[in-house]
Write a structure and sequence with these properties.
globular, eleven-stranded mixed β-barrel, mainly beta
Length: about 260
């Protein structure tokens, strides 16, 4: 009996050791500085605009630039639909660049999103579901100077976000609040390489709503990211930690028409 138990423990230890040895881990200090703007066009529709200035070493070098635009449709006060386009430029940062040649690359995305909102007591909760069709630039050889291939990859995303007011029972004008979110991103389709798991993001933010049109947030972000390639048979994981700042602008353009 003791012999069987010893063999079982040894087997489990070997599996854990193998799993750890099959991974390479690296860390980066990141800074994400984001603008998000919504412009109401009618009672049901609006335009979403967004730019994310993502930096490595907190500020000094590029990680990624991301531009996203979309059309909103408010199905109900608690159900928001959005579809649109995103452009991203990713740079060779960190110990193991995302591109195996150590080059920057462009990505074009089409996306569809559903966001559900609810309130439980003083806690505001949102669930965001997103699908992305990603045309990711790559170099067919070291001799070409720019991306000459854009294979299609698919990605599914789910984010849950909770926020609570720090003064009063609801987030209204001149209200400080605390927010936390977690988002997981999963790749699928024939062009997904070594990873189905793409990345996970966790954020803890302190925010302030000046008016219904303007609010800011700042805090901590953790990004766990798996590269779509291996080195010497090992999967590569980035554990990126740093600062995130959001500036949000909401304007009602229907009032200007009146």
């Amino acid at each position: 009996m003791k012999c069987k138990l010893f063999i079982a423990i040894l087997a489990i230890s070997c599996q854990i050791s193998f799993a750890q040895n099959s991974r390479l881990f690296t860390t980066n200090t990141i800074g994400w500085y984001n603008y998000l703007g919504t412009f109401k066009l009618s009672e049901k529709t609006g335009m979403h605009t967004e730019y994310q200035w993502r930096r490595n070493d907190l500020l000094t070098s590029w990680q990624q630039g991301l531009l996203r635009v979309g059309l909103n449709y408010n199905l109900t006060p608690r159900v928001l639909l959005r579809g649109g386009y995103a452009w991203a430029e990713t740079y060779p940062y960190g110990e193991y660049p995302l591109n195996k040649m150590g080059r920057d690359f462009t990505e074009h995305r089409i996306f569809e999103m559903v966001q559900l909102s609810q309130k439980e007591g003083v806690v505001e909760i949102s669930h965001r579901f997103m699908l992305e069709q990603r045309f990711i630039g790559r170099y067919s050889s070291v001799n070409v100077m720019s991306e000459d291939e854009f294979p299609l990859a698919h990605r599914a995303r789910y984010m849950i976000r909770l926020q609570v007011p720090l003064n009063g029972r609801e987030i209204k004008d001149k209200t400080a609040y605390l927010a936390a979110y977690d988002e997981i991103l999963i790749g699928f389709g024939k062009n997904v390489n070594t990873n189905i798991f793409d990345q996970n993001r966790i954020g803890i933010l302190l925010g302030y709503r000046f008016t219904k049109n303007v609010r800011i947030e700042g805090g901590y972000i953790n990004q766990t990211l798996q590269l779509g390639r291996q080195i010497n048979g090992q999967n590569i994981f980035q554990n990126n930690n740093g600062l995130i700042l959001n500036a949000t602008l909401n304007l009602d353009l229907t009032k200007s028409k009146e």
